[in-house]
Design a protein that fits this description.
Blueprint (H helix, E strand, L loop, with lengths): L5 E10 L2 E11 L4 E6 L5 H8 L5 E8 L2 E2 L5 H6 L2 E4 L11 H8 L7 H10 L1 H5 L10 H12 L6 E5 L7 H16 L4 E4 L3 H7 L2 E6 L2 E7 H6 L1 H8 L8
Parallel strand pairs: 3-8, 3-9, 6-7, 7-8
Antiparallel strand pairs: 1-2, 1-4, 4-5, 9-10
Helix pairs in contact: 3-6
The structure holds adenosine-5'-triphosphate.
Length: 241
């Protein structure tokens, strides 16, 4: 069987004196959307930051596309083709939507076909093209952050809670955008608290608790098993549509 695009084995992460990840193991297959779920404080963000090299794994191995990237610096990891959208989004509020996207494309201007595709995913960005990004709504800012991550082709996207705090109509737009990203064949590792979004988008699912992977499998099997959901995720998940 082909090696998965991303593979974590036995990853431990310490932040200062705190031992946060305790031997995390999982794989994200190419061309799939892998959901990373878990209660607050389970270690999801720390996992994404460790993959990106923003926290250094204290032991264990992270392999990407067949290469060991565990000790690589963040710029090298980004250059290898991993895009990261943190919860804080990291957009430039004082720059226009256009300028934010131009800046994100490090290797030169975004070609017009790609730009059309991106703005088709997030039509609001086209409407506010010349407006400062700081004037956008929370959901539109989140869309801009994702558009920045895909301004250049990526091998893998890590996205942290893109629907957090969004109104239901915005959550629906975000779900549609992710469906289109999936259809385009993108490989995505997505942290999500909204179980409806997770259930319609996820191919595979990893559930973390207390810095460990406590479940991994097919998303549709978790969706079908209410007891398993309750046991793994408690009642903290937002099931609003
Ligand atoms: N900079 C830090 N210093 C110390 N502890 C931290 C730091 N960042 C995170 N932690 C701790 O690490 C644990 C995992 O946090 P993390 O943010 O990875 O969880 P999460 O699953 O993403 O949670 P949430 O869903 O609330 O965002 C938590 O107990 C958190 O308090």
């Amino acid at each position: 069987m082909a090696e998965p695009l991303l593979h974590l084995s036995g990853v431990h992460t310490h932040i200062g004196p705190y031992h946060i990840l305790h031997g995390v193991d999982f794989a994200a297959p190419a061309g799939q959307l892998t959901m990373l779920l878990g209660r607050n404080g389970a270690g999801k963000t720390t996992t994404l930051r460790t993959i990106m090299g923003l926290w250094q794994a204290s032991s264990g191995t992270i392999r990407f596309d067949g290469n060991d990237i565990t000790k690589n610096g963040t710029p090298d990891i980004a250059c290898a083709g991993i895009g990261y959208v943190p919860e804080s989004m990291g957009i430039f509020a004082g720059l226009t939507v256009r300028e934010n996207i131009v800046l994100a494309a490090r290797s030169g201007p975004v070609d017009s076909a790609r730009l059309d595709w991106m703005l088709g995913l997030f039509p609001a960005l086209r409407r506010f093209w010349n407006l400062p990004a700081g004037n956008l709504s929370g959901g539109q800012k989140q869309m801009l952050a994702i558009a920045r991550a895909i301004a250049e082709p990526r091998r893998l996207l890590l996205i942290d809670e893109p629907t957090k705090g969004l109104a239901p109509v915005m959550v629906r737009s975000m779900i549609e955008a992710f469906k289109a990203l999936k259809e385009a064949g993108e490989t995505i590792l997505l942290v999500e608290q909204n179980f409806h979004a997770a259930s319609v988008l996820g191919d595979t699912v990893i559930v973390m608790d207390d810095g460990r992977v406590v479940h991994s499998g097919i998303m549709s099997e978790l969706v079908a098993d209410k007891n398993l959901q309750r046991r793994l995720l408690g009642l903290s998940l937002d099931t609003h549509q």
